[in-house]
Amino acid sequence: MDDIQPYEGFLHLNGWICSALWCGVKEIDIRFIYEDVSTLSTLLFSCQSLVTSKLNIRVRGNMKVPSNTCLPNLKTLHFSFSKFQDGYSVIMLISNCHVLENLEFTYCEFGNISKLNIHNLSLKRLVLDFGEMHVHSQIGFSVIEIDTPNLVYFKYVDDTMVEGYTISDMKYLERADIEITLLDRVDYEGATNLLKEICNVQSLCLVIEDFSKTLFPTPFDPVLAFHKLVEPEFRNQYNEDWQGTRICGVSTLHA
């Protein structure tokens, strides 16, 4: 469903969505620009037939996810520019989708939680893109916990590192795209902890916004070791004269 202009009305949009869901639609893709919309139909989170749900809700209203929701056939779930009043309900939704393989959060806000806990055993692709939201204290949490042991692809974008990361062993991880901004020692420590958790990745694209000449200004203890890495790509958005890195196994590479 392409962008709908304001004059067409929020009620019409909700009516179309409900009609499609009642007919047992398997895929829904909404891109909505109506600034006055506060929420969308909760049927989006209870339709048993859905296999793909992509919700690009470019509004500042609160998305309400019913508690104890289970979508047994959902394999792809994307949220963009969504504001969740109850962040915990979203976490439960993810855990209750037992065949979910593809999950994306882009510029989303989570209320009433101190940590974002993503637990799903079937998940293979995960994108967490918060951009500058954390800088402006809009993200809603300070800790990220990821328990997705079958993950194959991971993308993480954040202009400020959260306070802590706990990531399960991703033994099947093939590709990671990480884009972060390092402003102080706390950010360096957060970045170190994040990279330690994905050291078994085979292909890594690491984009840093940092004024230092090396990837990190001080040695790691213990040293980061990417023993399986065969496709490294490092870029510094602020410094084109990077001299190298302190990551074991790729320390001879130059950005």
Automatic annotation (TrEMBL):
Residues 11-207 form the At1g61320/AtMIF1 LRR domain. It comes from the Eukaryota. Pfam families: LRR_At1g61320_AtMIF1. Coiled coil: none annotated. This is At1g61320/AtMIF1 LRR domain-containing protein.
